[in-house]
Fold this sequence. Notes:
Elements (H helix, E strand, L loop, with lengths): L1 H32 L12 H44 L6 H24 L7 H25 L2 H25 L5 H23 L6 H22 L9 H13 L4
Amino acid sequence: MFIINTIGIVGFALVFLFGIILCMELGVRWGARQRLPETEARGFGPLEAGVFSLLALLVAFTFGDAMTRWEMRRQLMVQEVNAIGTAYLRLDLLQEDDRRKLQQQFKQYVDARLDLYAALHDQSTPIAEQSRVKELQDSIWSAAGTALHRDQTATADLLLVPALNQMFDITTTREAVTWAHPPAIIYLLLFVVALVSSLIAGYGIGMRARRSIVHMVSFALVTAFSIWVIMELEFPRSGFIRLDPADQLLHELRDGMDPW
């Protein structure tokens, strides 16, 4: 979403909070012009209740989906660390010279993956870092093929090749999940329904004898905060909710590699 990339999640949340307050204020003034006598004051009717119910459903569904994707990204990081660690350990099956060469390439590969994640944002692709990762994958695969051809040990072939395949395949899976977001129209619907709900809530307040600042501020804060958390989960490398604890596993793997 272009606007998220431009002003950031916090900036968007503040703008959205202002929009909610503005819609509520417009609703209050609109309701004040049609204020009923206190004896005729009534609560929200079926139409208003339907709009609020739709908002609640949209928030619940988008929050659940965002949380699922966030957890999936975290789990994929763990799987990648395990895949790299397994392949690295299986290098011990090779001859010493080949093992040392591949271990050095593995360290460069992990460094490249860390650089990629450090440069990664949910709305932009670090082309240079991605190219570096692809080059190292090709280099590792070529070096491993040469080493296995020279070694001609069935055990090394059967164990190392699947480990390398898994290590490379997980990068494609992670990239696909990183860019997996709901269609923009879903968020547009959520924002529009939230603003319309704010207008209706303000209208209901305006029809009463006096305005309730507490109700207005509470509704605005709760609505804006809920949607802000959804956006934080959906774009975990753009705001306060981060994947740094999962990234730390890759740092620890890199630190644990033998210093050749």
